[in-house]
Design goal:
205 residues; alpha/beta; Rossmann fold; 6 helices; 7 strands; 22% strand
């Protein structure tokens, strides 16, 4: 797949195009990647985060996988289920917000030092618009980390994440980051042995 060419619209369609609020109305207090992969992600955050930084956990839920020993400033969570967000002990504040209905983030420009999206990018039908807004809410020298794996809700994930091989899915998201204005886009593979894969894209504002 050539990411310099337009991506077919069909790849952004979903089996279930009903309102996302219906799908996410019931909380899901489950882990979406296995324990070893969660540990690998938390270990990466020890490199990605700086003490005192303000973090946006985008497409958040009841767990953020952040290292306990790193003191952070604000940890804002934006997700689709109120009960999940309330249950997340790392969040200092939270909002319920449907990014597929309104891709512009409800935060002032330059509000955060770091933004992360964990195994959720596959649910966005307009990822470039969302990532453009992510860039706006990041401060100078801010960075975004997008963590991907191979699990998904098949009815709500866009077709690209169900039909394309892993390397092309990563290339697709890298293209979204580039077109959203990010720089120094880096792919990092932190997949543990005999566990769910962990593919990371890190980019600078």
């Amino acid at each position: 797949m050539n990411i310099d060419k337009p991506v077919p619209e069909a790849l952004y369609r979903r089996a279930d195009e009903s309102a996302d609020e219906l799908f996410y109305r019931e909380p899901r207090f489950v882990a979406h990647i296995d324990a070893a992969t969660i540990a690998a992600l938390t270990e990466f955050y020890r490199e990605f985060l700086t003490p005192g930084c303000d973090v946006l956990d985008l497409m958040s839920s009841w767990i953020s996988h952040l290292p306990e020993e790193i003191p952070l400033g604000r940890v804002a969570g934006l997700g689709m289920n109120e009960a999940e967000l309330v249950a997340n002990p790392r969040l200092t504040d939270h909002l319920v917000h449907n990014l597929n209905e309104e891709p512009t983030l409800p935060y002032p420009e330059q509000s955060f030092d770091r933004v992360h999206i964990v195994v959720s990018i596959q649910y966005l039908i307009n990822p470039e618009a969302v990532l453009s807004s992510v860039r706006q809410v990041l401060r100078d020298n801010g960075a975004v980390c997008i963590a991907m794996s191979h699990r998904l809700f098949p009815t709500k994930a866009i077709m690209a994440f169900q039909e394309l091989p892993a390397s092309q899915r990563v290339a697709l998201v890298a293209g979204h980051l580039e077109r959203a204005g990010f720089n120094d886009i880096e792919f990092i593979d932190r997949s543990p042995v005999n566990a769910d894969p962990l593919w990371l894209l890190v980019a600078q504002r």
